[in-house]
Design goal:
Elements lengths: L10 H13 L16 H6 L1 H12 L4 E3 L8 H14 L3 E4 L1 H13 L7 E2 L9 E5 L13 E9 L6 H5 L5 E8 L1 E3 L4 H6 L2 E6 L6 E6 L5 E4 L14 H10 L3 H7 L8 H6 L1
Parallel strand pairs: 1-2, 2-10, 3-4
Antiparallel strand pairs: 4-7, 5-6, 5-8, 8-9, 9-10
Length: 269
């Protein structure tokens, strides 16, 4: 992320990981990777730093790409997403992390060279992430989509999202963003294996994505980490940690087919 040298910037994310690992009785070790170190320029300027960054990424059992600000190191982040997707490494992209997963897929699988977010590049040949403001009745001129919002989870084909959320078809999660997946490209993405398993109530805003054929590749437009508590881990983080330890399928089987956050405390403690 942008502030990998300032770990407290991501304290909500690290706490959510710790809460999930505690519930699952797993030891958690966090490795920080600066996306700039994954880019070709670093390979030229500092080969040792480049190799170390890639070694850390490739030896991770699971990867979180948290919310991002600005266009710093987009290429490095896209490379990290591509590695996780193609190597079947468990991956969780949050807010901007989900958007970068869409950018990576568009560039790599759809062949859309230059695909980008209009936040990073206002005029680009394939605007896969676009400005989708939400008018506020409370704040004049506000375009930020923030606060708790309803996400409707699709129950078709018993999606991974539905299973990790315990079969719930509607959840409330906290948002803070202005940019979202371009609705015009949804059919194309879905035809190639992207599954948008969570949407807003209108069906126009994509809130959760997963990747067909991948054991755990999930993106959320919202910030699930804000709701995590000790003893009450949030489903995306608990699912990621269990998938990283190759225990997700067994855990859901033990939970009766659907993940029940908190049952690990009953079972293992």
């Amino acid at each position: 992320g942008r502030f990998t040298g300032l770990h407290d910037t991501y304290i909500s994310v690290t706490k959510a990981l710790k809460h999930a690992a505690m519930e699952a009785s797993l030891h958690l070790s966090i490795e920080w990777v600066d996306p700039a170190d994954l880019e070709p320029n670093t390979h030229v300027q500092d080969n040792r730093r480049y190799d170390t960054a890639w070694w850390r990424l490739k030896n991770a059992h699971g990867v979180v790409l948290p919310g991002v600000l600005g266009d710093r190191c987009v290429d490095g982040k896209v490379r990290a997403v591509n590695y996780c997707r193609t190597s079947t490494t468990p991956f969780l992209g949050i807010a901007g992390g989900m958007q970068l997963a869409i950018i990576e897929f568009a560039r790599t699988e759809l062949g859309w060279d230059g695909a980008n977010s209009t936040e990073f590049e206002e005029t680009n040949p394939h605007p896969v992430i676009i400005f989708m403001p939400e008018a506020s009745a409370a704040v004049t001129g506000s375009t930020l989509r923030s606060g708790s919002r309803v996400t409707v989870i699709k129950d078709e084909d018993l999606s991974l999202t539905l299973r990790i959320y315990g079969g719930k078809t509607s959840i409330n999660e906290r948002h803070r963003h202005r940019y979202e997946v371009n609705p015009q490209i949804i059919p194309t993405l879905e035809a190639r294996g992207v599954r948008f398993t969570g949407q807003d109530e209108s069906g126009s805003r994509m809130q959760i994505m997963e990747m067909k054929g991948h054991p755990f590749f999930i993106g959320t437009q919202f910030h699930p980490e804000f709701r995590s508590r000790p003893g009450a881990p949030v489903p995306p983080f608990l699912g990621l940690v269990l998938a990283a330890a190759r225990r997700l399928d067994k855990r859901m089987q033990d939970d009766g087919g659907l993940l029940r956050p908190g049952s690990g405390l009953e079972r293992y403690h």
